[in-house]
Amino acid sequence: MTTSFKRCVSMVSLALLGCIAMQAHAQIYKCVSPGGSIEYTDVNRGSHCKSMDLPGAVIPAPPRRQGTPARNNVPAPISTPGDFPRVDSAEQRARDADRRGILEDELKSETQKLAELRKEFNNGEPERRGDERNYAKYLDRVAGMRDSISRSEKNIEALKREIANIR
Fold this sequence. Notes:
Elements: H1 3-19, E1 24-25, E2 29-32, E3 38-41, E4 49-51, E5 58-59, H2 89-121, H3 135-165
Antiparallel strand pairs: 1-5, 2-3, 2-4
Helix pairs in contact: 2-3
């Protein structure tokens, strides 16, 4: 095998290791046999194996035998440090009011923008401009207008959801 092919196989192997379902953390070793073949494993098999520095690298846990209880892999809840800054309720209400005002202004401007886009769109038949002698240019502009209207409608929905989520 050529060196570039071996490198390619190594990179693909590493990519596959990264994509495997993550269940158990373990050290990964790259073992190169005297014949030149490369193997990635979680077992150090001697001097021909080198530990790999792969932050967050994991390998799948072995399959569970029937009849054995599953381990509880639920992480412990993270508690807030005692010196974490707290905001009093009056300050939080003021922040929420500011946020609501900003979102309502954005909603108002997005609603106006949507009305203008719909007016220009003219129910799917906007007026042709002089620079659109080619019908394909006109159709491209109409498709862009449809996209803009759809995006604006989605923005309005998202803004309404955000406003509804404010306490």
